[in-house]
Amino acid sequence: MVTTTLTTRIPRSWVIPTSEAADRRPENARILNTLTVLLFCNIFLQRLAIPVAGAQLQLILPITIVGVIVMMSRGDIQVNVGRLRAYLLAMTACCAAGLVSFLRELDDTALTSLILLFGTYIPLCFGLAPADSRALFPKLLDRFVNLTTILAGVALFQFAIQLVGWQYTDVLSVIPADFRMRGFNTSYPVQYGSSLYKSNAFICLEPSFCSQFLGFGIVVCVLRSGSWWRYVMYVLALLSTVSGTGVLLLAAALVLLSVHKGARFATTALVGVSIVVLILSFTPAADIFAQRATETSSNNSSGSLRFVQPYTRTWEALDKDPLTVLFGSGPGFADRDAAAFYLKTSLPLNYALLPKLVLEYGVIGTVAFLAFVMAMFVRGSPSFVLSGSVIVFYSILSGGLLSPVVTALGMLLVSWFTATPEDERWSRSRESPPADPSSPPPPGRLTPAQRSA
């Protein structure tokens, strides 16, 4: 094992092997099945919502909370002391920032946004016992590979039937609109005026979300030394989404893998990517991807709306008074600013983690929350590569501060499997049986009666 500044303990091997340790208890099969159900819901039910007071609650959040309650009642998971402390610190700082905004009577502040922040992150204060984590982590990754392989197959099917003449339609339109998540570009063509639509596998919030889950599938498949045919399916499905975010996620993961594995893997990965690019260059898709690669220079492109304008608007907001810089403009401000921007331009502005935190909770809330992010996805992580990939997905690509589908994926792939020395000691203290008063003391130690005599 090696120790680095990024994580407490990182396996030297880049492949995550099947655990040779025996399961700590027979209940581990039940735990694995529960975690698999949560993963399935997170991937395949992400477009479903529950109407709440004129708004929507993504279905995966109550499913996750119910899963936590059930697993806690069975003793399958436990409170993670380090993350609980970081959570309380972050929520206290965000509440203080929100209180200042409410007292200042700023417009566009919402108490519901602060409440949702509490509810979204409370499941991440739990986790598996270290012994269970070591035994179940590789098995859950295998389940994730299987689920994302199914997702890749559905994405390819959706794109293929369009090529043979099927006119695209949203198959989930049979579900009432209030029970489908709004505010996402679920259906849109590969380019303006085209009758061919990007693949979102029917069930993903957007083609970009589909591509990011497929990118994670490739990463985990590499970590588990998956079969070659899975990579072919993943790459073809990723191309069918015509989305750059999955490619960016995969590129970041390949860099991390190259750092972890070394020059031989980096060379192999470079050759593989070059072959894919060469083959792609002979297809009509080459021009589409070339346009996507340079679209951040256009103000009305998705790249600009995701990676440029949220940051420039946040920087401009920092020119306001010092109280706004320190405490922000109030919970929910970024969402309302994006809504106002849409009404004015008909363009969807996507605030990622950092600009949203700074706008709503200021520097104080941002610093405290970023410390919580490190506790969630980095400290004690079982995989250097997965931690880095989750952070890129969560903080840059997805706009995931209040997105349960994003936080739940990071929770199930990383957070619930972290194990720091503090976690190990706390788990052992809970498992140690109470001392028997009638048992003889260890050699050299006097009993209370002997000491009083």
UniProtKB/TrEMBL annotation:
Compositionally biased residues, Pro residues: 434-445
Keyword field contains Ion transport: no
Sequence ranges of Basic and acidic residues compositional bias: 422-433
Keyword annotations of the record: Membrane, Transmembrane, Transmembrane helix
Sequence segments annotated as region (Disordered): 422-453
Ranges that cross the membrane: 31-49, 55-72, 84-103, 109-131, 143-164, 200-223, 235-257, 263-282, 358-378, 390-419
Name by which UniProt lists this protein: Uncharacterized protein
Organism per entry: Parafrankia soli
